[in-house]
Each structure stands twice: as structure tokens, then as C-alpha cells.
Amino acid sequence: MARFAILVSIFALFAASSFASAALVEHFFNVEEVTVRKLCRDQVITAVNGSLPGPPIVAREGDTVVVHVRNKSPYPITIHWHGIVQLFSAWADGPEYVAQCPIKPGTSYTYRFNITGQEGTFWWHAHVSTLRATLYGVIVVRPKYGRTYPFPKPYQEIPILLGEWWNGNVVELEQQQLAVGGPPIDSDAYTFNGKPGDLYPCSKNDIFKLNVRRGKTYKLRLVNAALNKQHFLKIANHNLIVVAIDGAYTKPYVTDVIVFGPGQTVDALLTANQPIGSYYMAASPYITIPKGVPFDNTTTRGIIVYKDSKSSHPPMMPVLPDFYDTPTAHKFFTNLTGLAGGPHWVPVSRHADEHMFVTVSANIALCAKPGTCQGPLGHRFSASMNNVSFLPPNKTSILEAFYYNLSKIYMTDFPSNPPLVFNYTDTRLSNDMSLIVAPKETRVKRVKFNSTLEIVLQNTALIGVENHPFHLHGYSFHILAQGFGNFDNVRDRKKFNYVDPQIRHTLSLPVGGWAVITFQANNPGIWLFHCHLEEHVPIGMSMVFQVDNGPTPETSLPPPPSDLPKC
Are the C-beta atoms of residues 367 and 377 closer than 8 Å to each other? Predict the structure, then answer.
């Protein structure tokens, strides 16, 4: 306890010494419906300040960000600041009915948070329904003044957000899907910075272009803002050097392909070292659902244009991996390592105060009227973690219930292990009715302040196998190891990387496989941990951590802001 008190005092002195260099970054977000023209048609979308993507937020480590959100749309909304840990500011985290009640139409809420001990590429997005299809934007956090990147300064930095587009009202499309319990409705296009590119109808001029100078190096701040698809990304004839993922620096990793799922970010250096000309940057989906299941198999592309290139020469197109190329995806995900000793490096602990083994499963919810549902076996699609299908409250948020000690809102008995041990990745059990029905409950995992957790995430083959990008709110974590099949505590523990593991806030859980993560629970509050495939959120593939308050007021959750929305 004395050591912790000393650390808190040192942090306070450091914060005081750096206060003068910190800034207040203020934005005003007007959320409203606008009409845009894409793919030969006019479409009404919900956007911030009339733009797609929404306005970028640019700050430095230590800055305080204040965003005034005015909801002029017909939908309740919240905003999540994806990857920002919200240290002692859980009220600003955003997920509906977890951190707050939604901002009702015609009302406002001000998000206020400090960017503490972080720099890199993050993003913001709506955290209600499928609204994040068009409500999203980049967050760029640069080093404090006087500090530099752990690599040569690039000539220019370019945010590139990969999105997903529907020819329709995304809220209504989701409601149609949930009403019958069926699969999600596929998107109609993918986009770079809101532009689908010239492979789509009426989109020859609606294409992202990046003008470069030969010999210069550019930092691409890549964000996968898609709802339901992971992606491969390549630039013809060019290698990229990955220098950061999810706002954490990596050892430089040279690759000709980027693989990232919804919620993940990649900082990659592009050196314009090829003959003067034009080169396509293209992205197509990485698919892990069984072959034969339909999906949006289109490709978005932009153009990298060298200065003085001749427009008469067509751009060169990269050869993208096969949609189902799991070996290429796994190679990318597992070859990345953390920059040990670099800026904001957090040494990994070999000790864990608590161990969890959490299964991730697709499930069914029994159809109330047989024959009216369009999910597996005539029932409704559902999902679970440790056989608990998460059901959020609707009368208040879990965070308010935690702060005010309200009863009957949630239970603190989320299981640390699955209720039944079985051969998790055996596809012969995919439709076993004794395994695939999970109760819908509001159960959270209670964690002591400052304790260290080690969590084995085990994918299952129930209903079907799939890769899941899992996002943890309030924290980043070390990935100790990942692999295929069932986790073996003796065999696989020998693979743990305690030297330079990658640090992420969003993990791609291997299809038919497992991953082990660890983090220190030093941020009190209520924190969502969920699959970032939007189709899996409303059907229950989430869990919640309750991190208890620390021993002092400085290590406890502060009171809620006065304008916190009410349910």
C-alpha cells in the first residue's frame, strides 16, 4: 500500500509539472440526418456536422478533450472514444446502458476526458445500434511537445478510415434482422474515408486519392471502422512498415499486407520509393464463416498518385489474398511484437491475482412462435460468453447502479469458467441443443482494484466457427499468446511472451482457436468487453467488468457530471 501511495504521489507531481503544456481540445458535435449520394442513389444517413467520416479530433498526450454532443437526429445516441482508456473518467466512455443512458433526440451531453499516458491512432463512433456505420471519425493523439516518435518523423500523416456502406437506413435494416432473429443484412460497399472507389456503380470520381512525392515517407493512420467485416489491405508494389497498433508502439514490422478487424487501428509507414506513377490501395474482406454463406465480396480502392505521374497510365492493382486466407491473417496478427522500453511501454506481469477461462460462442434463443424465426434450426441467432448471453438493463446504466449502489439492476456473479467443459472446437457439436442455448442475463465480473487478471479466451464451434475482434473498454492489454484448437494449459503456456508482447485494446480471436491476455485493473468503473462485429453485440456476445474503487478518493470513480443523460 505504501508503494502504491508513493506512485500516486509521483503521478500527481508529474501531472502538475506537465499541466502548463497541456491544452483544452474542444469540439461541438451536431448529430443530424443528412442526404448523401452514393452508388447511384440518394441516401439519408445520420452524421456529425454533416460529414462522412465525421470531424477528426487532434490532440496531444496530456490534453483534456471536451466534446459537446447535441442530438438533432431521431435516434437516441451515445459516443464512444475507442481505445482511450478513460482513466478515472468512466462517465465519458459511452456504451449505452453500460456507461450511460442514451442522449435522447433533442437533448445534449458533454463528454470530458483527459488523454493520460497514451498516444497514437484512436477513433470515435456511435455506441448505439448500427449508427456507427456513419457516425465515426479519427482521434489522433500526438506526443507531448518536446517528445518524438520512436522512428524518423514522416513527411506527412494521413488518416484512412475503412468503412462499410449500406443502400438503406441502417437502423431499420438492423430492426428487420432482429425482428426475425436472422443473419445480418450484407453491406453494399466498403469505403476509404467515406469514398467507395471506382469498382462500384457511379463511383468513378468518388474515390480516395493520396498525392505523394517520390522519396518521402508517409505515416498512414489506418482505422477499421467497418461494422461486420475484417479486411486485408494492400498497396500495389509497396511494402509498409507497421510501427504501432491500437495506439501502442511495435517493433517495426515490414509487410506487404495489413490485416485488421473492426475496432483495430494500425500505424504504417509508406515510403514512396517506386517508379513515378499511380498505384491502387485496395481492401477486401477477410472471411472466417463457412464457405457458401453469402457476404459482401466487393473491393474498395483508392489511388496513390506520385507527383509528375502521367494520368494516361492506369494505376497498378495489388493482388489481394483470398477471402478465406487465414494463414496470412494469422501470420500478420502473431508476428507483431511490442516496442519494449519504448514510449508508454508497460512491462508485462508474470503474476496474476485472478485467472479466467472464457468461452466465446454463437448460440440460439428459442423462437417463441416456431416457424417465424430465421436463425439456426428455426430459432433466433444469439451469442454468449461462458454461456451467459449479455442482456443490458434499460432503466438505468450499470455504471450508475455501481456508483449509487442500486440493487436489482445487475448481478456480480459472472462465472470465471464455463459451466460445462467440452471439446470446444469440435464442429460435430455445432448444433448440440444441450450446448447452444444460453440464458440472457445481466451478470458482471467483479474485480478488486489494482489486481492483475489473466484471461484465456476460447473460441468455440457452436453454431459455426468465426474470428471475433474483441474490444476491452477502459484498458489496453498484453497478448501473451494465441493459437488454434483448444487451449492446453501445459503445452500452450510455454508459448507465452513475457518479453515484448503486443499491446492492444482490440484482439482478433483466432477462428477455432484461443488467445491469452493480461492486464492490471487499475481503473475503477464499469467496463464492457465485447465482440466488435456489430452483428454480435445486440445478441449477447459481451461481458462486463466491475472494477472496484481503490482505497482513496483519488483512486475512486468520481461523481457523474450534472448533465449525464437519464433513461
Answer: no
